[in-house]
Amino acid sequence: MNLKSHSTGMSTTLSRRTFLGLTAGTTVGTLLQPAPLDATETSAQVRAVAFDAFPIFDPRPIFALAEELFPGRGAELSKAWRTRQFEYTWLRTVAGRYADFWQVIEDALVFATKDLKLDLDSQRRARLMNAYLELKTWPDVPQALKSLKAAGIRLVFLSNFSWRMLQAGIRNSGLDGMFEQLLTTDEVKQFKPAPRAYQMAVDALGLKREAIVFAAFAGWDASGAKWFGFPTVWVNRLNSAIEELNVSPDLTCSDLSGLVAFAISRH
Question: Which is the catalytic residue, given 38, 52, 100, 186?
Fold first, then answer.
């Protein structure tokens, strides 16, 4: 596998919409401002797909484990944990206090269990954290990736996941050799949706933004990628509501079949 880029992935909470809205037009908001599009990019054909981790890796076993360890509270914990993870990534990016995603998810887990008054002993903590290193693909992923590769479309990860987390998921799923590069925000010390994070794919692939389809799992990531200038497909596997950020993905689908058709039709 040619891995060209790598580095050493309820309480009172900060609303995603509120956070992004407050930063607009302020000094810290410049971290979230997309770079201007080059006029020559508008006619570019699709040459590559950059994936967030979760359109590929199925996180549901983590949610199931939370319920196993905290019967009757697993869904509540999973929601609080996920929410805090991404709030911490945004806060750390704006404040310039980067920690890799592994550290972020552990910090968020500790906070969420404390806030919910759950007993997170060392064994439960280790099992929940290690679940992120045991992820495997959604059922439709292998064939979808093969179809994209057969069409001559380049594939990369572009994820908040750490290098170790991406490697583990690839190993667990038998995807060695499928992705040209593993681009982690560890490289730039800023989490998505900071434009510098999305810029990694442009720099690594040597392509215009309009030639790279971004496959998002979360609605906020789809918004960030679209702001940046990527043709964006929201793989909305959890049937979430679209974010109220005055921007929409080019396509919303429930699995990778829509993404494959979108990318190949524009290749």
Answer: 52
Whole-number Å distance between alpha carbons of 62 and 49: 26
Q: 60-133: what fold?
A: DNA polymerase; domain 1 (1.10.150)
Concatenated DSSP letters of 98-156:
---HHHHHHHHHHHHHHHTT----HHHHHHHHHGGGS--B-TTHHHHHHHHHHTT-EEE
CATH of domain 45-58+137-265: 3.40.50.1000
Asked about 58 being catalytic, the answer comes back as: no
pLDDT digits (tens, 9 = 90+) for 71-130: 999 999 999 999 999 999 999 999 999 999 999 999 999 999 999 999 999 999 999 999
Burial 77-104 (b: 16+ CB within 10 A, else e): bbebbbbbbbbbbbebbbeeebebbbeb
| Cα 259 to Cα 257: distance, rounded to the nearest angstrom | 5
